[in-house]
Amino acid sequence: MVELKQLLRGKLVLYGLAFLLLLLVYAVAQNPRPLVQSLAGELSDVYYSFNSRQPPPELVFLEIENDSVRQFGRWPWQRKILAEGLQRLEQAEVIGLDMLFSEATRARHDLALTQTLAQLPVIGGLFLNGPMSSALDKAAWNTLADSALLGAQHSGLIASERIELPTQHIREALPLLAALNITADEDQLFRHYPVAFQVHDLVLPNLAVQMWRLAKQQDVQLSAEHASLGAQHLPVDAQARLRLNFYSTDSWQRITFAELMQDDWQAERVAGRIVLVGISEAGVTDIRATPLGQIPGPLIHLTLLGNLLDGSLLTPINGLQLFSLMCVSLLIGIWTWQLSLPVIRIAVWGLQAVVLCVLGLVAYKYFNLWLEVFYPIVLLFLWLVLGEAWLFRINTAETRYLRNAFSSYVAPTLVNKLVQRGEDLHLGGQRQQITALFTDLRDFTPTTEALDTEVLVQHLNAYFGLMINRLHRYQGTLDKLIGDAVMALFNAPLADEDHAYHACLAAAAMMQALEKFNRRWPDDPIRQLRMGVGINTGEAIVGNIGAAGRFNYTAIGDAVNIAARLESATKEVQQQWQQLPAAQRPCQRVDILIGEATYDAVKDRLPCYPIEGLVLKGKSQPLPAWVLDWQKMVRDSVL
Hints:
This protein is 43% helix and 21% strand. The protein has 639 residues and is an alpha/beta fold.
């Protein structure tokens, strides 16, 4: 009956941990860091390679590429060349310019371009960088207001205090202006397209959105609850960005500027179409990293237009939908965990991961839904690890487990108490107050070089026997032996309300035992040992840390690290101490240093002297420390 209750209690704890895992993975999915987003993208970005759609034929990319640059020279060109080329696009429905004319050139060239732009349905560009927007004059603000969205309100819009505009004459000739900025995800890949940006009180649409507005005479409705373009719903994220559904880079209808300028150019090739003029020549650096590789920046604007035209905008599976899917995945994982054979469990888990990947691909290809399958798969994997670890634990006899885990750490008389009170132990790690004690031998190298190996081992074994005996006497737990060093814990695994005091007593007793140990060889300084001790009290993570079948009961945390640094500092403080006149030294030797929390616990009972300005290794600021006068403790019979 007791075993059944323990099993049920263990399962409830396990299911509680599984639910916490679910919440943790879901929280990470809502706000992924760059590394997580990169890993998720490596898995789900593969979907794009299954996109068989062709870009709508209404879209044309008029590109300034290598052949055009060889014919007309390095970019930027004289504006009369652009003016002549743009005149040949007079039959296009809308023309977008993915370029900025922010500086004046020769007056006659600028005039030619201005006159051409005034006759065409052209969208000009602006950049959200450069000068502060507060420096704009009233005429510039009026031009921006004519291009802004009306009634758009979205608190998450990407905002900018800087803006770079075309020259006054050019922007006055343009029907509308639009932002040319596109933003990368945290892993520096371009997957999303901002619908608009916030500049003071104005909401300025991006280039593709502005081209759609002019071509289709449909406006954007944008608020915190809803976003639409005409009758088309826009599945925007918290920053009013849309996930792009990329087409194959080679599938776009392209016309080079060199072709446009040929004598046999046929204007009908762009009749009634939406044309984006941009640069793809590699030397201009308008190249963007996407899940499909490096592509010219103008194609990202065209991709959104293509998605709007063929209705292939992607709707992310997020929020409650993603949480529900992860719940179902976890429930199936819990059912799988109850299968008896490990091989069958792992095979079913693997099959479930494959099914999730296929589900994500089907959702993308046939329903324009985007599932970041990485997160439910990670949840499944974490549950696999957790469930298998729990099965390992319940299949090991508890008494034998506890004896093996603690018989090497604590006094033999305490092992039975540990077994009897196993329900009080929290194996696997818990945060609690402890006192950590570190010792290390000083100038031990000459001893190791002078003694034969067998004699040296016997010498160390005798020394360690004395140290461990004193630890056990004051309820200390031997954590580990590190070479000739000792790490011990107090208040773990069994509770000790006065652990800081007991650690100090143990340290003093160890120093007293070492002094007696050295008296065995009064005329042999090689065999005499010197030791420093560091003690610190604070919060740490305590428990069995490692892997199944090979673990160590230990403590980790800053409190433990400070204890080790205090031990290391005893040698330096002793040297400084010896430089003082004897009358100014409260005690003759510095063998034990204690931290502030330890001092607070023992200051009214044990002799302690402060150390000023002690900067421990790895710390930038001085930490309070005190010398524990163990010799006075011996004289006062405190031990």
